[in-house]
Each structure stands twice: as C-alpha cells, then as structure tokens.
Amino acid sequence: MLITLVAVSVQAAEETTVGHPYVEAIVVAILLGMAIRTVWEPGRRFHSGIAFSAKQLLEVAVALLGTSITFAAVAASGLALLGAIVSVVALTLAASFAISRALGLSVRLSILIASGNSICGNSAIAAVAPVIGASPDEVVSSISFTAVLGVVVVLGLPLLIPLLVLSETQYGILAGMTVYAVPQVLAATIPAGLVSTQIGTLVKLVRVMMLGPVVAGIAVFARGLRSDRSATPASPSFFKVVPWFIVMFFVLAGLRSLSLIPNTAVVPLQKTASVLTVLSMAALGLGVDVRVIGGVGGKIIAAVTLSLLFLLAISLCVVRYVAT
User: Fold this and answer.
1) 236: pLDDT confidence band, cut at 50, 70 and 90?
2) Distance CA 154, CA 188 (A)
C-alpha cells in the first residue's frame, strides 16, 4: 500500500507541474517494487497478500475499465474510421507477435508485447497477463520497456506535424492510433489544438474498446498456455475460457452505454480501477527477479521498437487514406 501511495503521489505531482503524467503511477509502482525487492525479500507472511493483489485485484481493475467505454463513442467514430482502427489493431497484434517470436522471446512474453503495442500499453498487458498465466517477470519486463518507448512517442510525435504537413484531424487520428495511454494522448495532442485532442481521444477510446474482444480471443485460442500452471477440466466452463472480468468489462460498458451507471459514479469507479491496477503492479514488482529482465532486455527493446515502428507506419497509411 505504501508503494501505491508513493506512485500515485508521483503521478499527481507530474500532473500538477506539467499538466500530464509522462511516467504513469503504474510504472513508478513497478520500479519501486523491483527496487525494494533487490534489497529485501518479502517473508512468507506477505506472500498471500502479494499474490492476491497481483491477481484478484488486477482482475477487478480490468473489469472496472468497462465504465470508461460507451458504445455511442464507438459508433461516433464512423464506419470507415472504425474499420481502420480494428484493422490496425489486428495487424499490429499479428506483426508484433511475429517480430517478438522471431527475436526469440517466449510465446507469453510475445503475446504481452503484442497486446501492449496494439491496444493500450500497460493496461492491455495487465489485462492479458492473468489470461495466459504470465509470470511477474514477464509482465514487468514487457511493461517496463513499453512504458519507456511510450514516453518517447509522446515527446516525439508532435515533430511529425510540420514534417509531414498533417492537419489537426490527421494528427489527432495518428496520436489516437499510436500513443498508448489516454492521458498520454492528451499530452501529445493538446499542443496541436482542440480538434486533435478531441479526435485523438475518441480514436484512443475505440482502441481501448478492443481490449475486451482481444483478451477474450486470446483466452480462447491461447488457453493451452495455462495448462502448465493450473489444471483445467476436460470440458472447461464458459468462465474458464472467457475470464469473468472480461465478461464484467462488457457488462459495465453496456450499463454505461445505457446510462444505467450514474455519471457521478463513473469517475470514482475509474479512479478505483486505476488505484487497484497500481497496487497490483506494485505487488508484481515485489516478485520480480531483476536478473531475468536483464537477460532478455535487449530482445524486448528490439521487439517493442520494431513493433512501434510498424504501428506508426500503418497508422500513417490510415491517416493519408482515411482522414480527410
């Protein structure tokens, strides 16, 4: 809890001083957890609490993300742009996975990197991790390096406006397609104007909406990855194939779309999801062996960088041929 408090405070300080969090609390929590783990190993009495925070609380946080989505916002993007976003997510997912595997990364780590690059960075990695039975080392490795490049994208993307002569609409679409987190989209688009901010946020929210279908698909097609970590029945139930928190993600999104969740409750629910995610990442950080990350660091950097370049290239194609 102390790590979570420090991480949230760091992000709040960033928002106060520069307006937006360039390094999110989730990343700060992981790094602090890892730092503490290098000098102190939690005793047995802490194990159950750390495990609960890393798994059950994370699942609740993913479910609560559904309150940030409305189907009306998805429909408002228009069929052409909606189709383009879905296509970009699918192609980036496949390309990132192929790149990661070609570089010799494990299947689980490749799935995490692909999910993070194609959808919404840290949140997507955190959502996919329990579905495929990823280890703390794999989760922290993928989030740590993805987060660093995410900040680079936020700082460097505005340079493309004069270089490629992008309109506010085009740049908004590009930012929404390539930047990982919603707050980072704001940081990347506000300097370009209100239109870019509005369009970028809309496109980003549609990408976030893809989180549910992608995680559900991974749960179905990659469920064999969990066979060496937990026994599953010969005829698994629906919730063994599609995790309960993904079902709740869609339920809450549906309730929000039907205005059955009061607007006054939306912000507190989203804040709760954010805090729970930070808490779970702190728990994961406490269980990480830094030597494992160091052993695959170079490959992960290469995989994330190449995947990000692919995403940028295909997003520029969308901007040129879909945006007006």
Assistant:
1) very low
2) 5
Q: Which distant-in-sequence residues (6+ apart) come within 8 Å of 272 by Cβ?
A: 61, 64
43: burial class by Cβ within 10 Å (0-12, 13-18, 19+)?
Answer: exposed
Average pLDDT (120-141) is 82
Query: What single-letter amino acid sits at 70?
Result: T
The phi and psi torsions of 259 (rounded to 5 degrees) equal: 60, 30
CA–CA separation, 207 and 311 (whole Å): 13
pLDDT digits (tens, 9 = 90+) for 307-321: 999 999 999 998 887
Q: pLDDT tens-digit profile of 1-17? A: 788 888 888 888 877 88
Q: Quick one: which of 60, 63, 4, 12 has its CA closest to 32?
A: 4
Q: How confident is the model at residue 228 (pLDDT cuts 50, 70, 90)?
A: very low
Residue 117 near residue 92 (C-beta atoms within 8 A): yes
**Euclidean distance between CA atoms 82 and 117, whole angstroms:** 18
**Total Cβ atoms within 10 A of residue 144:** 20
Q: Are 145 and 167 in contact (CB under 8 A)?
A: no
279: left (phi > 0), else alpha (psi -120 to 50), else beta? alpha
Rg of the chain in Å (alpha carbons): 19
Handedness of CA 321, 89, 246, 54 (dihedral sign): negative
Using a cut of 0.85, tell me whether the model's pTM lies above it: no
Interior CA angle at 125 toward 273 and 70, to 5°? 50
Half-sphere exposure for 37 (CA within 13 Å, toward CB): 22
Average pLDDT, the chain: 80
Give CA–CA dist 209/65, Å, rounded.
9
Q: H-helix or E-strand containing 316? A: helix 290-321
pLDDT digits (tens, 9 = 90+) for 274-287: 888 788 778 767 76
Whether residue 143 contacts residue 27, with contact meaning beta carbons closer than 8 Å, is answered with yes
Share of the chain above pLDDT 90, in %: 14
Structure tokens at 300: 């992960």
Copy the structure tokens of residue 276.
């729970």
